[in-house]
Amino acid sequence: MTSTRRQFLRAGASAAVAGSLLDPPLSRAAARERPNVLVIVIDTLREDHAFGDRARTPNIDALTREGLRFTHAFPSAMPTVPVRNAILSGRRGFPFRGWHDHRGLLDSPGWEPVRDVDATFTSALHRAGYWTGYVTDNPFLGFSYPYRRLRRSFDLFVRRGGEIGGTDKGVSSRELHHWLHPAIADAHNADRLRRYIANGHYDHDDSQSFAARVFTSGAAALRRARRHQPFALIVDTYEPHEPWTPPQSYIDMYGSRDWRGPELGTLRYGKVHNWLRRSQREAVLDRLRAIYAAEVTMTDRWLGVLLERLHDLRLERETVIVLVADHGIFLGERGWTGKISVALHPELTHVPLVVIDPERRLAGRESDFYASPHDVGRTILSMTGVRPPAGMEGADLSAPFRGKRLPKRPFAYGGYRNSHYLRDGRWAFFADNRMKQPHLYDLRTDSIEGNDVASRHPHLVRELHERVVEQAGGRLPYYRL
Question: How many distinct helices (H) and strands (E) make up the chain?
């Protein structure tokens, strides 16, 4: 660990957070009294890899020691685009009423642009005198036509391409097949991997990785933002979303050095038995988990570059920091791989969420409040003393910093495509929106959610579904895709 990182971990904070809610616009002089904001969004980051022992994440660990960690954070609307909409708007998103397909986005419920750009937390901050920036390689927010107006709402929007699209030139057959395990070798995966490798070529130099590009661009944006304080900067990396081509040094942290087969540069979405023979499963899934953990560690390494810059610019004492992910991914658990909307278990739905107060109040503490990415906007506006736009539904997660209680939220609920879920201290429930194939797990006796008891408790299943319907404001929509 570098000396600057050690200093960052020990750093105190002296900047005061404005406590009153004031109506914008403010004068620049008044705005300068408010803290800066840095939001870090990491795609496809499982909670048990960010905080557990599944992957080495020293920089995320450092942030956790400095902030308040929410141990029960679950997205209200999934996956990629719906979660980012929720972060920006402070609204749940689910149920996806009135959805239709949008050019440049996936043909999937919830994939639509932010409906009111003026009502995002970043627009509210901009009206209150903040300089705003967004750095990302997210192919949808960064490049799709429906997000053009959102991109224009920032003073600086930096987009780094590469994960999707681009050229397929300059990749040898040998290089491609090094990452194309026979179990995933089809035309679609071959084409996507070829383009991914061509756009990055980082398997021997992680400084060319997409996480490195985003976080180094974020570090450059911080230097620019420093001249325009107060600022609000979002740095949003698409890694460790698949495909994956981490350097061997990262893989060797987790995988057997005796592995001789081609690597798993990606995976198939669905049941494991549909793409792996029984004799293959243990070895291939172990390698798949090693590859994913390697990508998580590599992403964390480049997050450290951003945090170093924050320290070097002496901004950490004046900045609210939030770390959040959008969703996880199945790596063979429960017989699934990929992001599966009909299997809303914690491997997919449990996400890391940490809020850091400039004064380091409650540093290293935990809360079991049912937090969600849609709480981020209201939390930041509260910590900056800016009135939230009408319609924000999120909770203010910063209340404990002021010695106040969080609001009552006895359960988490939300949805993904045509499915919905609810979790509380006793039960984990999910089903499709027509209530076909419901699933129910008793968390007191089955914390790993391995024993589905839905058939034994039909009245409880109906009650939990009706609770979601009540919270959602009526019958849940179902789209035939």
Answer: 15, 16
Pairing between strand 330-331 and 366-371? unpaired
pLDDT at 333 over 70: yes
3-state SS, residue 125: helix
The residue behind tokens 């480049």 is 302
Q: How far apart are CA 299 and CA 176, in angstroms?
A: 22
Q: How far apart are CA 408 and CA 135, in angstroms?
A: 34
Length of the chain: 481
CA dist., res. 68 & res. 87, Å (int):
18
Q: Which amino acid type is present at position 184?
A: I
What separation, in Å, do the N-terminal and C-terminal C-alpha atoms of the chain show? 49
Query: Both tokens of residue 352?
Result: 């890391």
Bridge partners, 337 (sequence order): 270, 331
Residues 356-386 pLDDT 10s:
999 999 999 999 999 999 999 999 999 999 9
pLDDT at 163 over 90: no
Do 241 and 312 form a contact (C-beta atoms < 8 A)?
Answer: no
Tokens of 142: 């960064």
| Rounded (5°) CA angle 356-359-362 | 60
Residue 189 burial by CB count (10 A; 0-12/13-18/19+): exposed, middle or buried? Answer: buried
Sequence-separated (6 or more) residues with CB below 8 Å from residue 185: none
Kind and range of the H or E run holding 304: helix 278-312
320, 325, 323: which is closest to 380 by C-alpha?
Answer: 320
Q: Where are the alpha helices (H) located in 12-57, listed in sequence order? A: 28-31, 47-50
Q: What does the DSSP assignment read for 184-235? A: G-SHHHHHHHHHHHHHH--TT-GGGSHHHHHHHHHHHHHHHHHTT-SEEEEE
pLDDT digits (tens, 9 = 90+) for 99-123: 999 999 999 999 999 999 999 999 9
- Please say whether the beta carbons of 219 and 307 come within 8 A: no
Task: Report whether 348 contacts 340 (CB < 8 A).
Answer: yes
- Phi and psi at 260, nearest 5°, equal -120, -10
Residue type, 402: R
